[in-house]
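Quick one: structure tokens for this chain, please?
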Amino acid sequence: MTGRIRPVGLAIAMAALALGLGACGSSSSTTKTTGASGGTGASATTGSSGSGGKIKVGVVTDIGGLNDHGFNHLAYVGLQRAEQQLGIQGRVLTSSSGADYLPNLTTLARDGYNLIIPVGFLMAQATDQVAKAFPSAKFAMVDSDATAEAGDPKNIEGLLFEEQQAGYLAGYLAGLYAKAHGYKVISSVGGQKIPPVDHYIAGYQAGAKAADPGIQTLNGYSQDFTDQSKCKEVALNQLAQGSKVVFQVAGGCGLGALLAAQQKGVQGIGVDADQSYLGSYVLTSAEKKVDNAVFNAIQGLQAGRFSAGTNVTNSIANGGIGYGKIGPAGLKFAPQIAKIYSEIKSGQISNIPNTVK
């Protein structure tokens, strides 16, 4: 399973890095600095050595920010847990657009952070550029394959996930629910067609068809991870075609897809975190435990187990993938979902597809 975006050339990389370094020298209205304990402002954790030589760990969010109710928020939770339990010094830089990736990563590298955690596949190219410019820095890159090839930086560890396993569980439940009610169509709304998104969707479609071979699966992309109106529009189009369950795989944007499901009286499925708090219409959530992965990466660094050029793959088997609370409409199927979970964990169910055809 690979998903690395490669830099287009060293000269371009260095030019972009120079721009990033320049940007770091001035304040930015689109970049927020957050201490892991919750405070904001650059004074939270700046400095070269920190308090008493503590390990310094910086997280750079993707554009969804800390309030995406999923992916980025979970990374923040993992950092907070490490700060509380491991005694590290944490800092978060939030990205409002892709233009923030390079300066945010460069700021942490320049300030001597022991581990830098870029959150999200879309940050892979910027991470490669900064990792090359700061070879002594260490990066634990969420959702990017760090297996080194010729010319790649050698100071990145990849944090990957078997999202298709979570998608399969969600899809199996959606298939059982649809079949029990005589429904013929379910759907998914992705943010962009990138590997982590498609892993979820491919697993969802496979799980649904395993539960009900006759089910029709619709899929669409909003091309956005933040604008809820775009995901809502895609979902409404799917609902108009008869979908009775909508799986959102689009971060903050996907909350709009769930809103469409709620307004039309159908079931929704959350992503990354347990999103059952949104209401009883949430059938379940496909969980990707980014918080555990971030915490484990920090703990590994502290214990001297950082492995540059390799990947740590999070799955059901090691507690990195799961499913959230099952809503009222799906409770009678809970024993079957628990059984499927156990069969994936034991390897009885394997080779779940991770590409959308």
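The chain has a mean pLDDT of 87.
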